[in-house]
Please model this.
Amino acid sequence: MKLQSIQVLRGLAALLVVLYHIRSLESLSIQANGLTEHGIISGMFSNGYAGVDLFFVISGFIMVYVTDDLKAGVKSAADFLFARITRIYPVWWLFAGMMTVYMVWMHGLSGHGQGWQAISRSEPLIPYLLKSFALVPQQEHPILGVGWTLVHEVYFYFVFALMLLLPRRWLPALLLIWGGWVIGGSLLGLSGPLAVDLPALFFYPMTMEFILGAAVGLIIMSGLHWRAGAVTLLATLWLMAALCYQGLETTHTLEWGRVMWFGLPSAALIYGLAMLDLQQRLAWLVPAAVGIIACTVIYQLYGLDDKSADGLRQSATLLAILVGAVAMMVTIWIGWLGGQSMPERMLALRAPLNKALGAFVRLGDWSFSLYLCHMIVLSLLRHVFEILGKTGPLAPMFQLGHPGPLDNITFAVIGLAISIASAGLVYKFYEKPCIILFGRLRKKMFGRDKRELAEPATA
Model:
């Protein structure tokens, strides 16, 4: 059973990452133009990288959910690993190949100045590309930078496949051992902000987010369902508070800090939403969505960013969360009152709400392609803006940093629209056909069709 709530979360996580990178590239262009204007995407979106943390927790949850009825053994482990590897690599190779072509087009392969050294930086070019396509640890980010998360995903899959060799009842203990292993290695100084080698990969703090997601999966599959609606709303406010208040990125923030700030509320949110989905009570998404919108609007009106004073961010966060909580309660009250006094009108809202839900579910389906394609799209768009912003009557619209919000809004809207459209096309004409092709091959090899192991776990 595909959980619609998890697909919605995937879509939201991907949007967070896209908006974060729109902000980053916009800031780079403003600096390149010698201007000092603040980008229009700031505030909580300065922490949009938290979408990765949400993806990691989702991944851990899905691993447990889709293997719930598997019998321990080599066949099950091989089945799982085949499904996951064929889900990740074909799409990754497409976009990594595109990025390689783009980088060669931009820098060439001369080996001097802006040649291959600009592509692979401190690594020799050919080994760098081979490691990038294989998604194994190296000193630099892969050729397509966002692929660093997939290095961890592949590691997750191999470790979890080993766990599937053992009886299912051992899984809680194995996860505890894995978590202790990560904490112990970190205390010994073996972890770091980037998996540059196998020890750094094995003891990477964000592995705990995958373990948290797996723990949530075990709790839900055990039948322990408690106050799904309340948990969802409180977890939503918790995550929104973290997005608003968290400040400058530091070594701590990029390691254990993000596990605490974003991993824990993400786990609570997945617990609540997955329970609601299994209980067919997704109407709770309405007050959650209203609360998110209210929090976002209030906080963004302050015009703060990650460098703003702690006191300002604190007061803005408190007000935003308070308004969001009130908006949630008002929405619930209106829903209850409407159900009592005009049930026909409330039932008429089902159709548009289901359409909105369907749109976000589709975005969740596209999230892997969106995650991988958006940096290519935005980088190309940035170069287009550089060209169009030099001369002509419309130059101010395309010169990022020009006084006024028009240039910023244009870049953000076009970048987001083209990224989503590109992801939809890639999903329809490449990603989904790959899923079908390898799904049929998996069925022939392993004879499994009860639950789809190729369900995309992360972007």
Summary: The radius of gyration is 23 Å. Residues 14-48+350-452 form one domain. The chain has 18 helices and no strands. The chain has a mean pLDDT of 89.
